[in-house]
Specification:
The protein is mainly β. It has two domains: 75 residues, no CATH class; 145 residues, Neuraminidase, CATH 2.120.10.30. Helices cover 0% and strands 47% of the residues. It has a four-stranded antiparallel β-sheet with strand order 1-2-3-4, with no helix packed on it. The protein has a four-stranded antiparallel β-sheet with strand order 5-6-7-8, with no helix packed on it.
Length: 243
């Protein structure tokens, strides 16, 4: 739960399992696993418990993100050597190639109406956040301050949270979809990463090592009232919020 209670294990892969992403209806869970070798994408049906591989193509199969309709998803594939973002259906069939660039393109996240996609690209020489209009393919760079901006997350209230290197540490910021309205949300010891919005856009759960190991924290959308919600042995990272 959002207060850190009712912890439940959902994968039994006997391997590294990471980057969980809940479907909009909360009935399916995407995640990456090394159970069959390299980083492949799997989907677990939370009702039946069945797990199936969605993408096991050569190279990377990482960073999956659901579209709001729950029928399609995007992920980064490097089957031809260069990491680009592709659109696939729930059977793993490629529907479209969303980015076509020599640079590394990763970490897709979609606007509430599903018409735009924010993502991270190294095309400027360092990781920066861009937005792509899915109808006409136009792309625009959103971040210009800082040499390392990553992990965008688009909220239901049309704000984009992201992680930026600031003074040798990772901090969480939020901005409007056109890059304006920038606000720093975390400012403390350690690194603050992996922002994930609550479905109503009022809260952000994130990971931080401000006390040593990485644990999960919760804060209001404006950065106030930060508190630790999960503190287990080892590291807790890459949270995903389900309705």
């Amino acid at each position: 739960d959002y207060d850190g209670r009712n912890l439940k294990r959902v994968t039994w892969d006997r391997s590294i399992a990471l980057l969980p992403r809940w479907s909009p209806d909360g009935k399916r869970l995407l995640y990456n696993s090394y159970r069959d070798g390299g980083p492949m994408l799997f989907m677990r049906d939370m009702v039946s418990g069945k797990v199936r591989r969605l993408s096991g193509r050569k190279g990377l199969n990482i960073g999956a993100a659901w579209l709001p309709d729950g029928k399609r998803l995007a992920l980064t594939l490097s089957r031809r050597g260069n990491p680009d973002i592709f659109l696939i259906d729930l059977n793993g069939k490629i529907l479209d190639r969303l980015t076509k660039h020599w640079a590394i393109d990763v970490s897709p996240t979609f606007s509430p109406d599903g018409k735009k996609m924010a993502f991270v690209s190294s095309r400027s020489g360092s990781p920066q956040i861009y937005v792509r209009n899915l109808s006409d393919g136009r792309e625009e760079r959103l971040t210009f301050e800082g040499g390392y901006n990553t992990s965008p997350a688009w909220s239901s209230r049309n704000r984009i949270a992201f992680v930026s290197m600031d003074g040798g540490r990772f901090e969480i910021y939020a901005m409007d979809p056109d890059g304006t309205g920038l606000r720093k949300l975390t400012d403390g010891t350690g690194n603050n990463e992996d922002p994930c919005w609550s479905p109503d856009g009022r809260y952000i759960v994130f990971s931080s090592n401000r006390e040593g190991s990485y644990h999960l924290y919760l804060m209001n959308a404006n950065g106030q009232n930060q508190r630790k919600i999960v503190s287990l042995k080892g590291d807790q990272t890459a949270p995903s919020w389900v309705r």
